[in-house]
Design a protein that fits this description.
Distance between the termini: 50 Å
Number of domains: 2
Number of helices: 10
Radius of gyration: 23 Å
CATH superfamily of the largest domain: Creatinase/methionine aminopeptidase superfamily
Shape: elongated
Structural class: alpha+beta
Strand order of the largest sheet: 4-3-2-1-5-6
Length: 361
């Protein structure tokens, strides 16, 4: 059990609730439930009152829940909702906060039927996500290992011949290498986008064959001990044209200027602005189509968000991406993404692939 779950007892009053309910299902898993309790089963509910902590699951996880959790009252039941409702009534809960972004309409409807006198209150997703926005040393090391494995796998991939191969086959090979190198699996569907398709920011791999003279974006990440990595490189198949080299240089400069400005206390939207101004000054502003970066941890996309709409500031212990990009329709695109850990004074880059324009064969 993490210290964060203990801190929730004292926050109930500020949230205006008597208890908080987290629910994880096979359809809508709750990363916050896993983070707070350590339980990795696919079906569970956690009820946190002012004085008690309960976890409800079924017989499939009887041994697992006892091995993975501590400091919680364990309920192994056949009908989770019925047992949960009885416990809520026994605790005399009148206002129950729920993690609304992680529960289905059916779950809430069934809960209300069993608890007609209890007011269900939505808890903002950002409230719970803030509990895990600053990584512990152990979390940082897990993310760093995922980043190391991913970078190593990409180095091995580009050392093999890619020209003449289908994008999908290249993505499959990279994901296979993740497991061979010690990862649990891939963090998200690998992006391999070549030629004009590299101008698609989320161009998932297809049957298109990589040709000479094409830009190739490879966006990838793997998972290690429940924590993720995320990194992007841009390659050129053969010799780059003048325009391709120019676009890469523009993105490269933006990438490093953003990293150079990182320090605790800097507004997340200002980091985005530094990168964006660099690209705009070079005349490619309208081709930068997304925010600069996002947090990475147990989820691939989590706070902080570095964009023009971003809130908050960079804090020590945060892990996030820096990934400017330029996407020119009809020509192709360049994206360079590094995974960054914010130390006390300066950033540490966890991903290991170079951000130079990588020549492949």
């Amino acid at each position: 059990m993490t210290s964060s779950i203990l801190s929730l007892h004292g926050r109930l009053g500020r949230l205006g609730v008597d208890a908080i309910l987290l629910n994880s299902s096979e359809v809508l898993p709750s990363i916050n439930l896993r983070y707070l309790t350590g339980f990795t089963g696919s079906d569970a509910s956690v009820l946190i009152t002012a004085t008690d902590r309960h976890i409800f699951t079924d017989g499939r996880y009887k041994s697992q829940v006892r091995e993975q959790t501590c400091g919680l009252r364990i309920h192994v039941v056949r009908r989770k909702l019925n047992s949960l409702a009885r416990t809520v009534k026994d605790a005399r809960v009148r206002r129950l906060g729920i993690e609304s972004s992680r529960v289905s309409h059916d779950f809430v409807t069934a809960l209300k039927k069993r608890l007609p006198d209890v007011e269900i209150v939505d808890i903002a997703r950002t409230f719970l996500e803030r509990l895990r926005i600053r990584k512990t040393h152990e979390e940082k090391e897990k993310i760093a290992e995922a980043a190391r494995i991913a970078s190593l796998s990409c180095k091995q991939l580009i050392a093999s011949r890619l020209v003449g191969r289908k994008e999908g086959n290249v993505a499959d090979e990279l994901e296979t290498r993740f497991r061979r190198n010690g990862a649990q699996g891939w963090a998200f569907e690998t992006i391999v986008a070549s030629g004009e398709r590299s101008a698609l920011p989320h161009g998932t791999a297809t049957d298109k064959i990589i040709q000479r003279g094409e830009l190739v974006i490879i966006d990838y990440g793997c998972r290690f001990d429940s924590y993720n990595s995320d990194e992007t490189v841009t390659c050129i198949a053969g010799k780059a044209s003048r325009e391709q080299r120019k676009i890469h240089q523009v993105v490269y400069d933006s990438h490093w200027r953003a990293i150079d400005c990182l320090k605790p206390g800097v507004k997340t939207r200002e980091v985005d602005a530094v990168a964006r101004r660099s690209i705009e000054k070079a005349g490619y502003g309208k081709y930068f189509l997304h925010g600069l970066g996002h947090g990475v941890g147990m989820e691939v996309h989590e706070p902080p968000y570095l964009s023009s709409l971003g809130r908050g500031v960079i804090e020590e212990g945060m892990v996030f991406t820096i990934e400017p990009g330029v996407y020119v329709e009809g020509l192709g695109g360049v994206r360079l993404e590094s995974l960054v850990y914010m130390n006390e004074q300066r950033p540490q880059i966890l991903s290991e692939m170079p951000k130079d324009l990588i020549v492949i064969d």
